[in-house]
Specification:
By secondary structure, the protein is of the alpha/beta class. The protein has one domain: SPOUT methyltransferase, trefoil knot domain (Alpha/beta knot). The chain contains nine helices and seven strands, in the order H-H-E-H-E-H-H-E-H-E-E-H-E-H-E-H. The protein has a seven-stranded parallel β-sheet, with helices on both faces. Helix 3 packs parallel to helix 9. The chain is globular, with a radius of gyration of 16 Å.
Length: 181
């Protein structure tokens, strides 16, 4: 029978150690994500994957916020974050810093997450959009490409925090492999 690990056995960092640790060159941008619980879940997964930062744009709420904290469980304190009123400003700033910016969106010329993960670049930013409307078209127009997660059921979308988790995990795995080469 398996015995669950204790926190001490897992050897987790404290917030100061996390802030000082090397991060993966992966930025997650939330474009008008309205649910505070979704924002909190993205922070928590960003912490787990040790990504560089979360960028909140538009109607996204920002820490400190009790509803974000309920889901993030403190990750909003460890993960670097930034706020932009306009998502396009965030996109242009990231591009100027050398990031390849992708929208996670279903589009006519989208490529699968696996295709992008196989040719992962040195600095990546991914944009996830509003729970109903997705990533703004003007933002999609300014991205390098759209990433799509293939889906095989009757629904055409997944919850934004679930999508963010899948995307972060897959791209973080590729970035970790690329840095070991």
């Amino acid at each position: 029978m398996s015995t669950k690990l204790t926190s001490a056995e897992m050897g987790r960092m404290n917030v100061d150690q996390y802030r000082a640790a090397d991060k993966l060159p992966l930025v997650v941008v939330l474009d008008n994500v309205r649910s505070q619980h979704n924002v909190g879940a993205v922070f928590r997964t960003a912490d787990a994957m040790r990504i560089e930062k979360v960028v909140l744009c538009g109607i996204c709420c920002c820490p400190p916020n009790q509803e974000i904290h309920k889901t993030a469980l403190g990750a909003e304190e460890s993960v670097e974050w930034q706020y932009y009123k306009d998502t396009l400003d965030a996109v242009h700033d990231l591009q100027a810093q050398g990031y390849t910016v992708y929208a996670v969106e279903q589009a006519h010329d989208s490529v699968t997450l696996e295709e992008i993960a196989e040719k992962v670049g040195p600095k990546i930013a991914v944009i996830l959009g509003h729970e109903v409307f997705g990533v703004q078209q003007s933002v999609v127009d300014n991205c390098s490409q759209c990433i799509e997660i293939p889906q095989y059921g009757t629904k055409h979308s997944m919850n934004v925090s679930v999508t963010a988790g899948i995307v972060m995990y897959r791209l973080a795995s590729s970035l970790r492999l690329a840095t070991k080469k």
